[in-house]
Amino acid sequence: MNEKVLLLLLGCVTGLVTSLPLSEPLQNLIPGMKEYATMSEGSEVPQVIFTKIIQANKDIDTPMHGGDIRIRTGRSATNCTSCLWPKFEDGTVPVPYSINVDFSPSELKTIMNAMDEFETLTCVRFVPHTTEEDYLNITATDGCSSFIGKQGKSQAVSLADGCIYKGVVQHELDHALGFYHEHTRSDRDKYVDIKFQYISKEHWSNFIKQDTKNLGLEYDYESVMHYDRYDFTNTPNHATIVPKPDPNVSIGQRVGLSILDVAKINKLYECSVCATLLSKQTGILTSENYPSDYADNVDCVWLIRTPNGQASLTFRDFNVQSTLDCTSDYMRIYDGNSKNSPVLLDKMCGSKTIPPLIASTNEMLVDNFQVEYSRFCTSDYLKLFIDGKQKGPFCGYTSIPVLYSTSNSMILSFHSDWANQAKGFQVSYTFRE
């Protein structure tokens, strides 16, 4: 899997791309988003995430349901009725974790990167365990595996050899948040056919429907929780899962959380966040209500992620309340998938010409803005973070040049205060090899 560029927009920005239309329920969850992108696949198609899990677990003797769901003695994996992690007064859902494995620095980076994406797009926060009674104990004892939801006390999430991929880590963490495999949804028969004739009887239990809460959201063929069409087949070239009505629909996720995965987490945990995941090679992003004035006191996030290449971001229009040092409304751009990533362009506000931006990888984070003018951009402003360097703040009527990042991610950060509003901004992004 070659992830090289991700663009995440944080702030008062709306993402517009040109692919398949979203259903009405999802449009309501993601304000201002009209269309969403699908993953583009190159000539070398990486493995679906769950196929990696099957390979890692092939010699594991621990009893599991669904191939990677751990089962407590005397307790079914299907009867977790109160397994949500508690929500704090600040609206976040902290999930404590401890790591009891001597992972390499690169493996730890992969795990942290997977956790960061939850924090960027949802209200879930994976936090180091201190004195909490309930927490995740990340081990490497039983392949790739996890319990469903909060079980109480120390509960294992195993990430052994063959499991340290961003998507695999997110798959197991999503189990720990309370999610089953997508193909076992209670309404799955409307969307897929299970070909039991090509599945050995000892694996039939992996395809049994569960009594799931579907949250009013459509079936997600691209979920990080979805099997590949050939998983557990006993007959070469014969699929075990066939989408319908179109059997050629691509199923299974190859990178990480899908758009609907994010929507489901936010709905299950009632997250009050404005977060959008985009995955098309090219597209246009605008602030909310553009070209009309953006709203007050809004923080939104856009994450643009592709399987390969680098992200290039070009601003076509930028007009944000200008204040001293851009302290009111502003935008930032990060070279990565979280606000912990290097700064590509720091606080921008007013009306400036912003240079094109290119991320160093396939991830870029944009904290969006449209800003009123102030002398030092202190009210509404935009910042970009590129390769650890801050660009901006920008506000007022500013011309911002094209910006490039050396990695696969970039963040734009936008801040808007309660006072004056402006038209906002329009920016185009693209990815280059």
UniProtKB/TrEMBL annotation:
Cofactor binding comment, as recorded:
Binds 1 zinc ion per subunit.
Q: Where is the signal peptide?
A: 1-19
Keyword annotations for this protein? Cytoplasm, Disulfide bond, Hydrolase, Metal-binding, Metalloprotease, Protease, Signal, Zinc, Zymogen
Q: Where in the cell is it found?
A: Cytoplasmic vesicle, Secretory vesicle, Cortical granule
The cofactors it requires, by name, are:
Zn(2+)
Does the keyword section mention Ribosomal protein? no
Catalytic residues in the record: 172
- Show where the Peptidase M12A domain sits: 76-272
* Molecular function terms from GO: metalloendopeptidase activity; zinc ion binding
Q: List the disulfide bonds.
A: 80-83
Q: Which GO terms describe its biological process?
A: proteolysis
**What GO cellular component entries does it have?**
cortical granule
Start and end of every CUB domain? 274-432
Superkingdom is: Eukaryota
Enzyme Commission number(s) from the entry: 3.4.24.-
Q: Where does Zn(2+) bind?
A: 171, 175, 181
PANTHER family in UniProt: ASTACIN-LIKE METALLOENDOPEPTIDASE-RELATED, DISCOIDIN, CUB, EGF, LAMININ , AND ZINC METALLOPROTEASE DOMAIN CONTAINING
What this protein is called in its record is Metalloendopeptidase
- State the organism's lineage: Eukaryota, Metazoa, Chordata, Craniata, Vertebrata
